Amino acid sequence: MQIIPVASGKGGVGKTLLSANLAIALGQAGKKVLLADLDLGASNLHLVIGQTAPKAGIGTYLTGQSQFSDIIVPTDYENVSFIAGDSEIPGLTSLRTSKKNELIRNFQEQDFDYLILDLGAGTHLTILDMFLLSPQGIIVTAPTVTATLNGYLFLKNIVFRMMYNTFKKGTKAHQYLEALKKDSASLQRLYIPKLVEALEKVDPENTALFKNRMAEFHPRMVLNMIDDPKDTDRANKIRHSCQEFLGLNLEHLGVIYRDSLQDKALASRLPIIVYKPQSLVSQGIYRIAEKIIHSETLSFDDDYDITQASETSFQIASEEAGEDYSQKMAYVEDLVGSGTLTMGELAETIKQQQFEITQIRKENLLLKKKLLDAARQGFKI
Questions:
Q1: Where do runs of H (alpha helix) occur along 29-73?
Q2: What is each CA distance from 35 to 4, 53, 73, 83, 300, in whole angstroms?
Q3: In this structure, are residues 34 and 110 in contact, taking their beta carbons and an 8 Å threshold?
């Protein structure tokens, strides 16, 4: 079974659209597919495939109300089964290690040709671990500055997660990483290949293992929402940035053009490849499905067991600190330096952020004035 986790770092780039339609395209090709919604707290995958949300899903399984076998349900589409999420569950961020590992084992025991995991947004450890269930996960991004930045951030966290899973507590490499954590600002700007060179000097044996696992890792990228053929240049620039700064070989799986028919398909509660198989979006998805069908199913070495991963794993940009200015600037510097982002795009993004900050300040001042007026009138606040 080929496991295909689908991630984006942040939402809004068509991750769920790709997951749903890719599952149906593979099913149409005669492949048995299990599609699972792991975007807990914001589950909407059932809407994209036109499925009424089942009463049992990941949420009821995690809370002990359902058996795992009970949450796998058939769909209206040939060869495609579905596991719903739960919009009332706050997410995977607070999932206990034992429950996460149990969920992973249940996924790995399924008898399908493909398991597609629609992951939630963010870079929490559980999301990273789900992505690392396979060396062939898909990262979905778009030509916009924010989408590119978030996709790169996600991949950088993935590399560090792999690194910390390989360098177990007590190893010299682990001690070296722990010492680096004391200077997080410098660490933000340390390119992975340079860091690996330093680790090789202090812990050659474990660093060799990490380098082997990086060689086994073949994430795939889909560039969505492009409007112009020139936008495809962004994909090659992203790949170059990942190679230069992360030491990561990122495969370009395909592009999907923006198409207004997608909104009509969603309103009709039909996947776009069912609503309009000849649309630009559908044709892009069929091409991606064809590449996946003809790709070899890969796996990490037998000793790389994600269920044994440490929950104190190192992250250079945890969810809690994800908005920190210095961290964000480190990613921007990487991408600007490689030409992935132009100075013009960066300037436009800063202007937009300044405008949004100004609007928020105006709203806060207005709210403060209303509260003061209410206080003067004798209301209790």
A1: 45-48, 58-62
A2: 10, 14, 10, 6, 22
A3: yes
Long-range contacts, stretch 299-307, CB < 8 angstroms, 24+ apart:
299/134, 299/135, 299/216, 300/132, 300/135, 300/213, 300/216, 300/217, 301/212, 301/213, 301/216, 304/165, 304/166, 304/213, 306/104, 306/129, 306/132, 306/133, 306/165, 307/100, 307/101, 307/104, 307/105
Give the separation between CA 41 and CA 55, rounded to whole angstroms.
Answer: 15
Is the model's pLDDT at 71 over the cut of 80? yes
Read off the DSSP letter of residue 226.
Answer: E
To the nearest whole percent, how much of the chain has pLDDT over 90? 35
pTM: 0.81
pLDDT digits (tens, 9 = 90+) for 254-263: 999 988 888 8
Confidence of residue 321 (pLDDT cuts 50, 70, 90): very low
